[in-house]
Design brief:
Uracil-DNA Glycosylase, subunit E, binds uracil, alpha/beta
């Protein structure tokens, strides 16, 4: 369901999330095929996970085929989730350092994780139209955040998706690792290179660099309490 576009701070049309979404026919058809080939996979649009009233919202790209798409929880079972959950635990947001499955008992406290695109895309590459179509879910998620909440975009696509969902001009907010910007409505956007296997294996993103961003977020969070 597409809701009114007049809510506070969002320009993108907001949509109420449903795992029955079929708005992108390419992704819906792809998921239908995955359900046939992998009947034990979640293989639906993956819901956000974590604290319903977070101080930090993390925005990834899209579920990985054999990770979030299998388990039904963002970054769970994905290589990219290893560093993410380890860091969330180190900074006090996760009750465990390793995220195994949707029913492993791990809880996020003060943090929530979502994705710019909720369905696993073929070859891990969503199209621009798919990112735009899914943006209504992100817009609804952002609308519900308390002013002052930190929003951490993992990678350039998530960064642009957050800006679009907030109705901000992308040209005014350049993506850069550890950059941060105030957003309309009192949110604050933080950027990090995505914690993907490629980025961590090539050294584009090190553990120290990732923790640097969480330190920035923590400093910001403490400064407003
Ligand atoms: N798994 C997710 O849920 N999101 C990503 O961006 C990568 C892996």
């Amino acid at each position: 369901m597409v809701m009114a576009t007049t809510g506070r701070r969002q320009a993108a049309g907001q949509k109420a999330f449903t795992t029955a979404c079929r708005d992108c026919s390419r992704l819906a058809d792809f998921l239908a095929g995955v359900r046939v080939e992998q009947p034990d996979y979640f293989a639906r649009p993956v819901p956000s996970f974590g604290d319903p009233e977070p101080r930090l919202l993390i925005v990834g790209l899209a579920p990985g085929m054999h990770g979030a798409n299998r388990t039904g929880r963002p970054f769970t079972g994905d290589y990219a989730g290893i560093l993410l959950y380890q860091t969330l635990h180190k900074f006090g947001y996760a009750t465990r350092p390793v995220s195994v499955s949707a029913d492993d008992g791990l809880e996020l406290r003060g943090a929530r994780i979502t994705n710019a695109v909720r369905c696993v895309p073929p070859e891990n590459k969503p199209t621009g139209d798919e990112v735009r179509s899914c943006n209504g879910y992100l817009a609804a998620e952002l609308r519900d955040l308390a002013p002052g909440t930190a929003v951490l975009a993992l990678g350039g696509i998530a960064h642009k998706a957050v800006l679009a969902a907030c109705g901000e001009r992308a040209s005014a907010f350049k993506f850069a690792h550890a950059a941060h910007y105030p957003l309309s409505g009192g949110l604050r956007l933080f950027d990090s290179y995505h914690c993907s296997r490629y980025n961590t294996n090539t050294g584009r993103l090190t553990e120290a660099m990732f923790e640097q961003v969480f330190e920035l977020v923590g400093r910001y969070d403490r400064s407003r309490s």
